[in-house]
Write a structure and sequence with these properties.
5 helices, homotrimer, twelve-stranded antiparallel beta sheet, about 30% strand, alpha+beta, globular
Chain lengths: ~300, ~300, ~300
């Protein structure tokens, strides 16, 4: 971990960790999906399950990322990724993150065609059954999320401190070649890193302290984003508890100039941040000021218990 | 702003700011030029007007870059870009930069063809007239600059301290994929960042203190630079006052190996730097030692009042 | 491997591979040197043995880098690093590189103090003896190289094609935070990547074709380079055979502005490049034109058979 991977207080950005996780997931699932006799393909990230940041990583530590395929359906792969931080001076190791990702293999010849996934062998029958259950659940959740996706973030003139409008932020990025896979669309990890960056700015603007990513709710990748697109990543505070803040982040893509397609919602997710003192202790979060009845609903209400 | 965006004293490099400005300008002008019914195109930077760095930006601050189209001629677009630095911990905001950029839309099918720009609507008639005047002025200045452009920086053997030869520096860069637009030529912002890097090294070698960019004179982009080219960016001190240094910077391009074209001058500009103490106060600059009559002329003499 | 890691023909730069090798070496040797009861330290690269690039790596392939400690003396560690490229679409794997690196552990409290290395266990007695022999040899070679190190590359006015002066090149780099270890000096891998970049530009200028790194001769790191330094990396053609080119590369460091130290030679090495056709076949190399008696000696003559 290098200085550029971390914030001013030396804590590695959640987005840097998410990017590494996705890189490991993309490698293992692309390798698996090409291990059969089917046509060549590249695995595209479809969804990341809710994940917690269990302990912070610091500049100078070494990240150990390991990945394993835990379930395959006909057209998708579930990957479990574990991240450990290692202080190579003291030898101390800590689990920083466990994440579950879903990938879909797209044909190298036709980017719109999903190819078949070679099945894996399960050590025990229950593993397959449990995997199938997780598969059904995520499928349902993805469908629901897509329907909620019409929302946009409008600028607010002269917002009061601690209102939604006060901290909402957005960032525009032009998708370059090194952001992309061999098929010419953006790596999921690149998108997640930018999303975490926006969420971090929203959180810091709201509470004006050192902040770190505590968890990320399920992230659904609805649509691919092609090289040359301009993406707008927008974030706003949706809920505060005494100890944490929930920030909703959208990614909207404007396709490159010679494509007929209109702007579309590509990804959306909820990030949870905590505020830290200089000594690394959790600080209370200023409450979100809700004006009138137009207040956004906390994500946790929308979807039952988090 | 990350550690790598800044010098050792924590001040963000002028080149990093110029690169962001150009990115915003390229996005808004490409978007505008594709809003009509004309053929798909990408906006290429033709010129940046003289711009001042009003206050320094620091690591950890958030840069807010906003861009607006202020004039369109048949084949060019004027963009006004404002940069604010925001300390998200204190909420303090400062204007750091205002810049005016000119773009020319190039056809996606034929990179040598300039396409027509859809006109914008002006709120008041005077805006259009003032814009036209700025357009004529920059056109004239670009023409003049091109004629002055034969100069090269020759190496000096064993130069004395504070002479031109002592601090002159050059840098070679191999143009990679991420430096380029979808049309395969270098983003203007990438070139400006490298130019600022060379100018900063010249200034630091001359005065051996912490230095920061104070302003950049008009930058003209005479020729496109293609992916795979090797570019040589050369800088030399041309003038010192008590409080500042003026450095001339050239960009020369050697086309990729299998192209018939010879080395050509692609860009040239003058950068002004100031020297700072550790506490951030302006220091006096050692005077430039001029040997004989071969001394370069200060740019301000060449062109009347700066 | 991403587009930015490769040249226009899609071959990954030798420098990118060297940087990964060094990263692996630095992690394993820092971890080992802190495994005993001694004081905390960071391993600094002292030397890389001659290494061949056995087969090219391409964009989209996954690099597998593995490292092992093969010998320890009282104050140094020998690390063997192997690099394999894996095409995750076809499953094909190839050994691309085997390298031997020597590290020296520097105290975290006092960067000028070399700490003691915990001994490793050898499976067989001969391994230790062979390691000791390699240790003595590299020690001798390092000493010799240091003495040859006064040379500088002087600029040539109007050089003829295929002379040394025609293709010689140099590159300036300002050392930023992300280039550095926890002790605040440059990672060896960052330096090697820049050296390969300069050597590649010299080779391309000489033969004006697609070129790739074939091998790197022993690289000795004589002195540390601190954060904030400006480094000048210079390269010149020293020898051509029918099929390859040998390029000498120097790294000179100018310490940060407020340090009393003068410019010093930090690293030097010889790189060998081959020229490739578009189909990837080796092309004959234009012979180096030697003017008068001041011609540089081929490195292979200086030091016996290559």
């Amino acid at each position: 971990m290098r200085p550029d991977d971390a914030n001013v207080a030396g804590n590695v950005h959640g987005g840097t960790v998410l990017k590494m996780i996705e890189e490991a997931g993309a490698i293992i699932s692309t390798r698996h999906c090409n291990s059969g006799t089917g046509e060549p393909c590249v695995a595209a990230l479809a969804r990341v399950e809710r994940t917690d940041f269990l302990s912070p990583m610091c500049i100078g530590e070494v990240a150990n990322v390991s990945a394993e395929i835990t379930y395959t359906s006909k057209h998708s792969v579930e990957v479990q990724v574990n991240v450990m931080s290692e202080n190579i001076l003291t030898g101390a190791k800590k689990v920083t993150n466990k994440a579950t990702l879903w990938y879909v293999p797209l044909s190298l010849k036709n980017v719109n065609k999903v190819v078949e996934v070679p099945p894996i062998q399960y050590a025990r029958k229950e593993q397959e059954d449990e995997g199938r259950k997780r598969y059904e659940e995520q499928k349902l959740d993805r469908l629901e999320t897509k329907q909620r996706n019409g929302d946009v973030i409008m600028p607010v003139i002269n917002p009061e401190p601690h209102t939604v409008g006060y901290s909402q932020s957005s960032l525009i990025h032009l998708v370059g070649p090194s952001d992309c896979t061999l098929l010419g669309f953006v790596h999921g990890g690149v998108t997640m890193k930018l999303m975490d960056e926006v969420a971090g700015i929203v959180a810091a603007r709201h509470c004006k302290t050192n902040i770190v990513t505590a968890s990320v709710d399920a992230i659904n990748f609805h649509e691919k984003i092609k090289k040359g697109s301009v993406i707008t990543i927008s974030g706003r505070m949706t809920f505060t508890s005494n100890k944490s803040m929930e920030i909703e982040v959208f990614v909207d893509a404007d396709p490159f100039v010679d494509e007929p397609q209109e702007r579309y919602r590509a990804v959306s997710a909820f990030f949870t941040y905590v505020s830290l003192s200089k000594e690394g202790k959790t600080l209370p979060v200023p409450q979100l000021l809700v004006l009138g009845s137009a207040a956004p609903q906390p994500a946790s209400m929308d979807r039952g218990a988090p």
